[in-house]
Structure formats: structure tokens, C-alpha cells
Amino acid sequence: MDFSRQSPTVGYEFEKLVNKVNTPRAIIENAFDQNATLIKALKPKEPILVCDPFERCVDVVQCTAKHTSIELLGRDRPGLLSEVFSILTNLKCNIVGAEVWTHNLRMAAVVYITDDEDGSRIDNPGRLSEIKRLLLHVLMISSNSNRGVIVSMGGGSTHTQRRLHQMMYADRDYDEQSQPAAMVTIEECPEKKYSVVGVRSPDRPNLLFDTVCTLTDMGYVVSHGTIDAEGPHAQQEYYIRHMDGFPISSEAERERVIQCLEAAIKRRSSEGIRLELCSEDRVGLLSDVTRIFREHGLSVTRADVKTIGIQAINIFYVTDASGYPVTKETIEAIRKEIGLTVLRVKEDHNSSTTTTTSQAAGRTSEDV
What we know:
Blueprint: H1 8-21, E1 25-33, E2 36-42, H2 52-57, E3 68-75, H3 80-90, E4 93-103, E5 106-115, H4 125-138, E6 149-153, H5 160-170, E7 183-189, E8 194-202, H6 207-217, E9 220-228, E10 233-242, H7 251-267, E11 273-280, H8 285-295, E12 298-308, E13 311-320, H9 328-338, E14 343-346, H10 354-361
């Protein structure tokens, strides 16, 4: 073959083949720092995959070919998650995993389900259509809409938490900004044709993941970056430009990048008190627990649902229906109803209301 005369399509396919042959290499060093592990990810330059190393470091339940995946996006309100889980349980579905985020009066969720009788993937078109119809009704979205509920069989290639970012971004949750959780600046570096993005915020798990994935999904190439996370705050700096090699070109684009990064960091800011539920898994468990939350006037602001073997390991962040801290009496009543050894209050220093809610509950993590 005359490679000098190959078509663009052949060249593109050949480049993909080279990238597949040259698989990523990772070097892990523990001697670098006594308080940290150094991970070096080495891969031929391929900007679109810049998030891959970070996705692999984030602990999350991913959908497999044995699960049916449901994506939900709608206006948030107290009791919404309880209604969603109740519908799925009534339709003979077992919820094996879920990630739920709320931000700016929106709720985004990715839920993984199986058939509650044999644990198989649900793929009957009629049954899936009924699931979608009832969930759209709960979300108060027209059944003719293409938004709100997406049902798919098997696992997608997109990381669950990255998908939540994409769903919120597509719904323009960044347009309605409250108090930002980060200070974002953008400066130009004309001699190098880069835009320099600076992000300063309180340090927390997955901060780097949220920032880099957002920039990548907005169509920017992160060419260089530095992160300083010593102490309670983190300082990030990235040199970015478009896929076509040009930096940020207008004030409107600059403001949009700032808003989107502020929103990406705020989405994972956990509002409310953290409740951890650990028990043997059973069909209807989540429906029962979230119903009890709703009956006691609680609103779930974030949830992380996992099933490991026969064990259910679930985390909920809750406030009262108005967004205020939950009282000690309410927490104790809920724990007694669900089980004192099953539901525990956990101190979370990343929660925006940790101090207040801990005082309201009259306990620390060592007390429960």
C-alpha cells in the first residue's frame, strides 16, 4: 500500500489502530511521598481521553451487561426520589445501584435495575415503555418529550459521575448560580495560544475529576496543568484551548467557562446531614427507606446506592423540606424506625452544613 497517498479516513483508522496497540501504561510509586501515592499515566497524545486516568480512580458502581440503566433528569422537589424508587419497586424492579445529585432545583440520577425475581436484565420493550411512562409522570414531563428519562440495556462507556455532570450541563444548571463553591479566573497566554484557567476552592475528594471532565466535555484540550492541594484549599491551574488549537475567544465564552466550572464543583457539594445505611439487601429496601424519609419531612439532596454481594451500602444526604438542618429528634425517630444498627449518622467535613447538622443531631461520628 502507498501510505503517502492514503485517504483521510484510512489515516484516521490507522491512527486509532496505533493508539490501541500503544495501550496506556501506569507507573505507581509509593516512595515518592509518605502521605501520598504517585501515579504516572503514560499514553500517546490523545486529548479526548484526558479524563480516563481520573475516571479509573473514582470509586463508583458502573452498569454492566446484566443491568438495565435508567437516566432521570427533572425538577427537584421533596419526596421525588421516594416516588421514583416506589414506582420501580411496584414494577417488580430491584435497584442494584444508583447515583443521585441535586443542584439548582434539578435532580439528575442514574439508576441500575434488574428483574426482582431472577435478577436478570430487563429488556422487554413493553415493560421498559411502562417504566418510562410512569417515571415521566412522576417527573411531571410530557410522555412525548425526548427528555427526562432514558432507558438502556447493558453498560455504557461513560463513567456514571461524568454522565451526571453531562446531564446537568445539558440542562444548563449553570445558568442559575447561587453562592459559588469556587473562585475561577481565566487569563490569556497569547504567545502560546493558551487560555489559563485558575480554580481555587476547598479541597475535597473528586475535585480534580469534576474540573477536568467538565473542561473536556466542553470541548477543550487540557495541555498542561498543576494542582496544589496542601492544606484545606486546593489551587488548580490549567492551560487549555479548543480542539482546533485556538484559545477562548470572547468575553461571553469566558463567562460561560467560569459558570460551568463553578457549577461542576458545586454539584457535588453535599448539603445536609450524611446518613449511612448498611444492611442485607432485599427488594423494596430503598423504597421503604426513602418513604420513611419523606414521611418525616426530609429531602434527599444526594444519594450513593451500592449493592455488594448480598449487602446494601447506601449513603444519603438529607435536609428538611425547606433545605434546613434536620433536628436531633427527627433523626432519632427515623433511626428507631429503620433500625439503630442499620442507619448511622456520619460526620462529613465536605458537607456544607456539617457543623450545623451535627450540632442539631447532638452527636459526632464516634457517638453512633
